[in-house]
Amino acid sequence: MSTLTKLALGMMGRLRPKPVRGEALAQIALPAAHKEGGMPLMEALGKRRSTREFAPAELPLPLLSDLLWAACGVNGPDGLRTAPSALDAREVDLYVALPSGAYLYEPDAHVLSLVVSSDIRRVTGYQDFVDDAPLDLILAADIGRMRLAPVAQRESFAAVAAGAISQNVYLFAAANGLAAVIRAWIDREAIAEALGLTHDQHILLSQTVGYPRG
Ligand SMILES: Cc1cc2nc3c(=O)[nH]c(=O)nc-3n(C[C@H](O)[C@H](O)[C@H](O)COP(=O)(O)O)c2cc1C
After folding, report:
1. Euclidean distance between CA atoms 25 and 12, whole angstroms
2. Cβ < 6 Å from ligand 1: which residues?
3. N or C terminus: fewer CB in 10 A for the chain?
4. Could you give the domains of the chain?
5. Nearest protein CA to atom 11 of ligand 1, as residue
6. Distance between Cα 150 and ligand 1 center (Å)
7. What φ, ψ does residue 26 adopt, rounded to 5°?
8. Nearest protein Cα to ligand 1, atom 20
9. Which residue, by CA, sits nearest to atom 13 of ligand 1?
10. Which among 73, 65, 52, 58 has a CA at the least distance from the CA of 125?
11. Predicted structure pTM score
């Protein structure tokens, strides 16, 4: 769908998901992530880039597993994660929009739990590539988990935590020859509606990841 069509549908509140392709499993158990090796950090930093042309091929499950662990997986005792969060509130949830449905990444169990059995990729942003790229991540903050943080700072704390997750994804993508782009040009209401989020949950950003086109 073109950006213009998306903008028009968005203005009418009619930017809607599509039926899923394949079966929407209630839970996807992710294989254990590979936590060693890979491209040296300085090399990955040298390659990090925003790219907006994606091949439609889906990411194999082991690669998706590694990507999600890199984003905000558990890497320490008591569920501590690869990305920081103020007061360890862990308020940023990572939703995973796949052709087969929209899932919540649950870092403690390292599983994907089905949220809606629709293909919501095209709802995750106004840019046309989001419809067909194999993976759109949605970063949403649950403000209800931030009761210890000063009210005036909750928004910026959550944005910083989301930025850290997003950079983890960018570096993973760079190290694995994937294309990625973080996106703030999104219809937050449409995404929240598609995911059935509560009032406490604020959509922050989306991020598309996939194989580069060509
Ligand atoms: C908060 C934020 C929001 C962004 N929103 C978008 C967006 O909506 N669409 C997009 O294509 N790129 C978006 N970008 C990516 C920037 O355009 C990109 O980072 C910038 O052009 C620099 O390019 P580089 O990331 O390749 O270094 C965003 C970046 C940030 C940090």
Report:
1. 31
2. 49-50, 52, 127, 181-185
3. C
4. 3-16+26-210 (3.40.109.10)
5. 183
6. 29
7. -65, -35
8. 50
9. 183
10. 52
11. 0.96
